[in-house]
Design a protein that fits this description.
With 363 residues, the protein is mostly helical. Helices cover 60% and strands 1% of the residues.
């Protein structure tokens, strides 16, 4: 089976690249006769099983030695009427968009898990990077492939600084940048430049990677080039509009024009119903309200965010934010899981204890 280390240089482009069973499986599932959403859903279901949110955590372990699992996946493909075969090189192009979408979903689950006690699943992030390297070798000179690989490398480079030893989230503005993987950042920055030099319309992954590059280049959070980041999100909204990009754009605008302007943008986005049920929407709203000094409204939004997520490190973060606003009592919201309420109370009391005189705040 062909393989590339996540820290190695570019793979050689050979016919053996698609002998990698995972990559071959993904290309097979992303059949051009299906719509892109169906390609992605079929691939995740086939690769990860029917509960593909949890199944993604097993993705990196499905390798050649797992004969029974491989046979089961191939059987699912046959039942769907898709021939299990390596596509000819000219047949790869119509499948590329779906393949890249699947790989990015795998990476996203590795970067921030959907649920559970652990913030990250590094094995998934590494697997997504490995697959992107293989595709870059198979189809060289493609801006969207180089952009996706750069985006994942730049995000993954911050892994060591993103959580405490106890598993709590360390936000970007608080991260120790000496912990970042600077050799991986250098590789990502080089790939961003290559992706943006490809002739034609800029690709979405390349623009997202350019945003990640600005974060990676900033010597500290305060000196981040927020106006350029906001401008790049506006480019993304033109070439690949989505409610999630609108939300990210609003967050960037808050660093340029202030939280009040960003809150107006989020109110308009929410009024259109574009992000109904999206778990990070109340979290972004809560942060803006906190920065505006509207602490009671911020508390309600943080509680809504805690109720929306299944990831424990995020719940602890929201509870800490409530405590930091000096709100030492967390009222029960209608419909809030009592367990989440108790978790908020416990973290609030713990933060209060740390803030008392004489307490060692380094813990």
């Amino acid at each position: 089976m062909s393989s590339c280390s996540t820290r190695a240089g570019p793979c050689e482009a050979t016919d053996a690249t698609l002998e990698d069973d995972m990559l071959r499986l993904i290309f097979t599932c992303c059949h051009p006769s299906f719509a892109e959403e169906v390609q992605v859903a079929l691939t995740l279901r086939t690769v990860c099983g029917p509960h593909h949110r949890a199944g993604r955590a097993r993705l990196s372990h499905k390798r050649r030695g797992d004969g029974a699992a491989a046979a089961a996946r191939k059987q699912k493909i046959r039942l769907a009427g898709i021939p299990y075969e390596v596509p000819e090189r000219e047949a790869l192009e119509p499948r590329l968009r779906g393949v890249l979408a699947v790989i990015y979903l795998v990476f996203t689950e590795g970067y921030v898990a959907t649920s559970g006690e652990d913030l990250m699943r590094p094995d998934l992030a590494r697997e997504a990077i490995r697959l992107a390297r293989l595709i870059d070798a198979l189809m060289p000179g493609r801006g969207e492939i180089k952009g996706l690989l750069a985006l994942m490398l730049l995000h993954d480079a911050r892994r060591a600084g993103r959580e405490t030893a106890g598993g709590d989230i360390v936000l970007l503005e608080e991260q120790d940048r000496t912990l970042w993987d600077h050799s991986q950042i250098a590789e990502g920055l080089k790939l961003v430049e290559e992706a943006l030099r490809v002739p034609g319309r800029p690709q979405s992954y390349a623009v997202q990677a350019a945003i990640a590059a600005l974060h990676a280049r900033a010597p500290n959070y305060k000196d981040t080039d927020w106006p350029q980041i906001a401008g790049l999100y506006e480019v993304l909204l033109r070439i690949s509009p989505s409610p999630v990009i609108e939300l990210n754009h609003a967050a960037a605008v808050s660093m340029v024009d202030g939280p009040a302007r960003a809150l107006d943008l989020i109110d308009a986005l929410e009024a259109r119903g574009g992000l109904k049920g999206y778990e990070l929407l109340p979290a972004v709203r809560a942060d803006l309200l906190r920065r505006l000094g509207r602490h009671e409204a911020a508390r309600e939004a943080y509680l809504a965010a805690a109720a929306a997520t299944q990831l424990e490190p995020l719940r602890r973060l929201y509870a800490r934010r409530i405590a930091e606003m000096g709100l030492d009592q967390v009222p029960v919201m209608a419909g809030l899981d009592p367990a989440i309420h108790l978790s908020c109370l416990a973290v609030t009391r713990n933060v209060d204890a740390r803030n008392k005189p004489g307490h060692d705040k380094k813990g």
